[in-house]
Amino acid sequence: MTAVTARAHTNIALVKYWGKADPNLMLPQTSSLSLTLDQFYTDTTVEFDPRLTHDMVRINAQLLAAPASQKVVDFLNIVREQSGQSAFAHVTSVNHVPTAAGLASSASAFAAMAGAASRAAGLELTPRALSRLARRGSGSATRSIYGGFVEWQAGSDDHTSLAIPLQETVDWPIAVVALVLDPHHKRISSRQGMQSSVTTSPYYPAWKTVVAQDLATIKPAILHQDFSTMGEVLESNAMRMHALTLSAQPPYSYFNGDTLRAMDTVRVLRQAGQECYYTLDAGPNLKVFCQTPDLPTITQKFAEQFGAEHVIVAHPGPGLRFLS
Amino acid sequence: MTAVTARAHTNIALVKYWGKADPNLMLPQTSSLSLTLDQFYTDTTVEFDPRLTHDMVRINAQLLAAPASQKVVDFLNIVREQSGQSAFAHVTSVNHVPTAAGLASSASAFAAMAGAASRAAGLELTPRALSRLARRGSGSATRSIYGGFVEWQAGSDDHTSLAIPLQETVDWPIAVVALVLDPHHKRISSRQGMQSSVTTSPYYPAWKTVVAQDLATIKPAILHQDFSTMGEVLESNAMRMHALTLSAQPPYSYFNGDTLRAMDTVRVLRQAGQECYYTLDAGPNLKVFCQTPDLPTITQKFAEQFGAEHVIVAHPGPGLRFLS
Predict the structure, then answer these.
(1) For B196-237, what is each residue's pLDDT tens digit?
(2) A203/B243 touch (CB, cutoff 8 Å), yes or no
């Protein structure tokens, strides 16, 4: 059989995915919008092999035993079902995402897996079909099939829930400064957090309206390169997502003291004329959007405050591609 | 003229007041519920004096000039209007509330002021009328007219918005451990914060439903001494109030790193069997409710973590009384 290697980059959501409508099909409660980044990616090789008696999954040179490999095996089962390929597979995946950067490696991982596994199984899928397939592995992977700004349209079933590019090639000098502040494993996973928000936050119904309004505002802002509007929307969207965690029963938070200090730094930088806006996902680490002329001042400020080794700069990145 | 001295204690809200419906009459968006505390109080003496050419306001031995005295002068004008008393007044007020304890001294201050000023002006007001009057000075003062557990009924106008006691004498061994963690003046006042939440948070309409449900749950829990239910409601109510600050535009937070660490400590204590629940208002300091058998372990834990000098224990306290 042929080994196929695919590379996909991670993405950072400007309008968040927070809540599943169908946990089996990974249908989301709302649409979402992201920027694919250039710095963080996963290379995955898949080869189906009739001699195997079970799937062999190596991630970062570590052979995974069950149950750790179960998510990958489940995903391969979907590919086998779609392709008619019945053999088990060798999967070798290497994440080029700094440990605990707060930049979900599952997005790049399952996007690369969707590409490599489908082609290795003999399928030639369109990007839309790859996006649908990646969704089954991880919601945010749906968007990493495309480069640049990408919208995941919630849809209503397996067929209609997929990403479409808003602007694949970003001709706009913007950057994302990732602060890597806390290497600890988070106490509440995204999956648990989303579920808790959907089922217990009294604010969840209003969140769905927030997302619809934010998407309607941010898409033209991106296309018109209106940085202020884009920034205000992405920051308030993130905080309204985190308000769902505080308002869940029991309440919880992904913030720590560094999170709050970094938020203050963003505010101080803005007051000093360096326009920047933060977002954060199900973890304590801020990702700060800025325009490249402001990048030196902003990175220096964060390096002074948190140490240069905790500051990583990323730019808009490309979609899925095949390396072999 | 006669000098009258009144003493009122501060209170801590279990179901929060967060948002005005009428800023002039201080009518709230929702009802709220509090416990009056024994540790923190204000003594206020008022004497009307025809020889004065303006009101003389001394707080903690400091003579206030305009505009610092304006809130007190405005309040005295309401008393003069109600009483027909036309003289200016000497006001001497001493707050026995530790600086920045996060226990609003305005609650005890305006409750004591309402008592002393109305009686000095010749009015003999019922507790209900005193509660309505105190409301004009500060929303939370409405509740400090009564001891124990008190509900401020939102009402719909000046006449109907007032506190009523739920249980004035608390025959239940409970305590509130106040952590005094941050002496800094807060960046966003309660007044600004409330206004911002009411006008910009998409979750505010749902907050009003939350409060109605929380009141319906917590009142029987208090009367039946069901500590777990009371605790769960007061903690989730506080977090849902703070979710309104994160979801405002622009977003803001009253939390700091110590706030998050103290929340974690409460969680750890609960897991270890010491049942306790926290609340916090428009500032970073936690107030932790517990039952007195657990008090030694809980205070020791917080003393170890933050220093014994930052830990103050309070119990249910009395309503307004006249000292002369």
Answers:
(1) 999 999 999 999 999 999 999 999 999 999 999 999 999 999
(2) yes
The fold of the B4-170 domain, in CATH, is: Ribosomal Protein S5; domain 2 (3.30.230)
> With contacts defined as CB-CB under 8 Å, which chain B residues touch A263?
253
Average pLDDT over residues A211-240: 98
Tell me the shortest Cα–Cα distance from A208 to chain B, in angstroms. Answer: 10
Question: Is there a contact between B247 and A239 if contact means CB atoms under 8 Å apart?
Answer: yes
State mean pLDDT over A102-126: 93
Question: Best mutation site among A240, A263, A264 for testing chain B: the one with the most B CBs within 10 Å?
Answer: A240
Read off the pLDDT band of A103 (50, 70, 90).
low
Domain A4-169 has CATH 3.30.230.10: yes
Q: May I ask the CATH architecture of the domain B174-314?
A: 2-Layer Sandwich (3.30)
A243 touching B, CB under 8 A? Answer: yes
User: CB distance from B188 to chain A under 8 Å?
Assistant: no
| Burial of B65 from C-beta contacts in 10 A (0-12 / 13-18 / 19+) | exposed
Q: Output the pLDDT for position A102.
A: 59
SS (H, E, C) chain B: CCCEEEEEEEEEEEECCCCEEECCCCEECCCEEEEEEEEEEEEEEEEEECCCCCCEEEECCEEECCCCCHHHHHHHHHHHHHHCCCCEEEEEEEEECCCCCCCCHHHHHHHHHHHHHHHHCCCCCCHHHHHHHHHHHCHHHHHHHCCCEEEEECCCCCCCCEEEEEECCCCCCEEEEEECCCCCCCCCCHHHHHHHHHHHCCCHHHHHHHHHHHHHHHHHHHHCCCHHHHHHHHHHHHHHHHHHHHCCCCCCCCCCHHHHHHHHHHHHHHHCCCCEEEECCCCCCCEEEEEHHHHHHHHHHHHHHHCHHHEEEECECCCCEECC
- Beta-bridge mates of residue B149: B35, B167
Model ipTM value: 0.92
SS (HEC) of A175-218: EEEEECCCCCCCCCCHHHHHHHHHHHCCCHHHHHHHHHHHHHHH
Residues in chain A within 8 Å Cβ distance of B258: 257
What's residue A242's pLDDT? Answer: 98
Q: How many residues does chain A have?
A: 324
pLDDT of amino acid A162: 98
Give the domain ranges of chain B. Answer: 4-170, 174-314
Q: What percent of chain A lies above the pLDDT cut of 90?
A: 91
